[in-house]
Amino acid sequence: MTTEPLAVPATPTRRVLAGGVRVFLAESLLIPTGLLTAAYLARRLGPDGYGIFMVAAALVAWVEWSLAAVFSRASVRFVAESVDWRPIGSTIVSVHLAMSAAAAALLGSLAQPVASLLATPALATSASAPSPPPPAG
């Protein structure tokens, strides 16, 4: 004879609290993992390489955050006005993915002019050239 545990009904308040705790726990991992990643990359790339990496990361983050800002207000409005949010959510994700891919292609094509503007040729070569494979053996 098996007894099933009684399921506690998920009230909206309980779901919000559980979601808030999950988000808090996920956000609490952000600083330690960021510090570990920064320490590893700084040692692995050296001061010059890490500086170039951070410039490239800042440019990419700026473009991606700008895209997210463009879509956020319209996305919230369309989802709020719809009866079924799933098709609209799917369309929003597809459009955002397409725009992100276009932004990545644009950033890749502008790597050389940006590197020239910043007088950092390594910024363009690391953006356009694939990294060499690790040594065998």
Describe this structure in words.
The chain has 137 residues and is mainly alpha-helical. The chain has a domain at 47-128. It is 80% helix and 0% strand. The chain contains five helices and no strands. It is flat, with a radius of gyration of 22 Å. The N and C termini lie far apart (58 Å). The mean pLDDT is 86.
- What is the number of helical segments per DSSP (H or I, 4+ residues)? 5
Topology order in helix (H) and strand (E) letters: HHHHH
User: Can you give the mean pLDDT?
Assistant: 86
Quote the distance from N terminus to C terminus: 58 Å
The parts where pLDDT drops under 50 for at least 5 residues are none
Q: Summarize the main sheet.
A: none
Tertiary shape: flat
Write down the Rg: 22 Å
Number of strands: 0
| Range of helix content | over 70%
Alpha-beta content class: mainly alpha
**Beta-strand share of residues:** under 5%
